[in-house]
Design a protein that fits this description.
six-stranded antiparallel β-sheet; Rossmann fold; 23 strands; 4 domains; binds glycine; single chain; five-stranded parallel β-sheet; Dna Ligase, domain 1; 29% helix; binds adenosine monophosphate; D-amino Acid Aminotransferase, Chain A, domain 1; alpha+beta
Length: 416
């Protein structure tokens, strides 16, 4: 089958490799990266708008499409590809609002009684300011409503910081139109975990559990990033907790989408805070996580294309997923200075020495047979092991073989 993979990160490289392991597809990456080029044909796209992507995928006559990033999903690429007869993994624009608008997501959770942090939404800067001045308890969380590449969330410690971030988001438009609305929410205490499911509109099938490290430095210090590493499974989520998450969160969401006439067809990702009062939703994403995918897909034994087909045919009720029981750890190597400013164009060496891990490229580019850095998160190394500790030891041993100027990675991925 001719399969399109949309996106250019480590997540998309992991999707490409999962499909390539089936050894029977022609895979096209739009636009892909220096790593996807080995197993797929990279198709360069001018820009990342859904118009450009639609045209490119149709030109390659792909029959199936897996959409990695949120932006094209929110813009309706999945709807448009389905209209053209493709088998697509990814929700339509209606359901993708769960990620595209934080205020919409909060209202959806309210309508369907899904546990989440208390909040208030504001269109006008003055009203938000008045609310802050009327007295908040701190820390508090301020979120830009729209897509902000994972950066539109600020945790504020006092009124001065709260006023400043409202000014940055709503007046200075630090995140552009994403800041036309904000929501101010209650700070939740607990441990974070990611819970991803495949969803066919009626039923869902959980993936293995995973945990992501969002902060740039060891010990969860520093700025939020796209994710500096992951492991799977998450020992924090036992069977009982998993049942609670499924019944109080995932099932309600899946039924909610259906009731509202926007059935969710794709990957639903719940970012959870495990609080003393039980699991609560921090955010929903309408796609695979990055770098969660880099520890989930290497454990998936069922051919990914068959899962996508089962989602499309609404067969998840009777479909079964088979998983490798071995834990996996993924360590992300970034360019120093990420997530603020960093250099690009540095040669990457040592990739051929990685034998026991899988290298998933993210911000890399291939030029004349050589790999160069082209982004903040450059690549990830995933290793499987008989225990989490073994997977972790192998992943660190393997990533040490890779070098580029300014390479930086956390040293505590996989330590609980
Ligand atoms: P989000 O993009 O909404 O998941 O937020 C990004 C990160 O901000 C999360 O992964 C959490 O670490 C943190 N965060 C978001 N909302 C809250 C909250 N209500 N309480 C505590 N931390 C939060
Ligand atoms: N790992 C966080 C995300 O994909 O949003």
């Amino acid at each position: 089958m001719r399969i399109a993979v949309i996106g250019s990160g480590g997540r998309e490289h992991a999707i490409v490799e999962a499909l390539a392991s089936e050894k029977k597809h022609e895979i096209y990456a739009f636009p892909g990266n220096g790593g996807t080029a080995a197993s797929a044909v990279n198709i360069s796209v001018h820009g990342d708008s859904s118009d450009e992507l639609l045209e490119a995928v149709l030109t390659q006559q792909c029959e199936m499409a897996i959409i990695g990033p949120e932006k094209p999903l929110v813009e309706g690429l999945a709807d448009r590809l389905r209209e053209k007869g493709l088998t697509v993994l990814g929700p339509g624009a209606g359901a993708a609002r769960i990620e595209g608008s934080k205020v919409w997501a909060k209202k959806f959770m309210e309508r369907h009684h899904i546990p989440t942090a208390g909040y208030k939404a504001f269109h006008a800067f003055e009203e938000a300011l008045e609310y802050v001045r009327s007295g908040l308890s701190y820390p508090a969380v301020i979120k830009a409503d729209g897509l902000a590449a994972g950066k539109g969330v600020v945790i504020v410690e006092n009124a001065r910081e709260a006023e400043q971030s409202l000014l940055d988001i709503m007046v200075e438009k630090q995140f552009g139109a994403a800041g036309d609305m904000v929501e101010i929410e209650e700070f939740l205490k607990g441990t974070e975990t990611s819970y991803l499911v495949f969803c066919d509109g009626d039923n869902f099938l959980p993936m293995v559990t995973s945990k992501d490290y969002k902060k740039v430095y060891d010990g969860d210090r520093g700025l939020n990033t796209g994710g500096m590493g992951t492991f799977s499974p998450s020992p924090l989520v036992d069977e009982m907790l998993e049942n609670i998450v499924q019944e109080t969160i995932v099932r309600k969401a899946v039924e909610g989408f259906k009731e509202e006439g926007i059935p969710f067809t794709g990957v639903l990702y719940a970012g959870l805070m495990l609080t003393e009062e039980g699991p609560k939703v921090l955010e929903f994403n309408c796609r695979f996580g990055d770098p969660e995918t880099q520890v989930i897909l290497p454990r998936l034994k069922t051919p990914l294309s068959e899962v996508v087909q089962a989602v499309h045919e609404k067969k998840l009720k009777t479909f079964r997923l088979e998983w490798d029981p071995r834990p996996a750890v993924c360590i992300i190597a970034a360019s120093s200075g990420y997530p603020v400013s960093y250099q690009k164009g540095k040669p990457v060496t040592g990739l051929d020495r990685v034998k026991q891990g899988i290298v998933y490229h993210a911000g890399t580019q291939k030029k004349e047979g050589k790999i160069y850095t082209s982004g903040g998160r450059v690549l990830g190394v995933t290793a499987l092991g008989d225990s989490l500790e073994e997977a972790r030891t192998t992943a660190y041993r393997e990533i040490e073989k890779v070098t580029f100027e300014g390479i930086y990675y956390r040293k505590d991925i996989g330590l609980l």
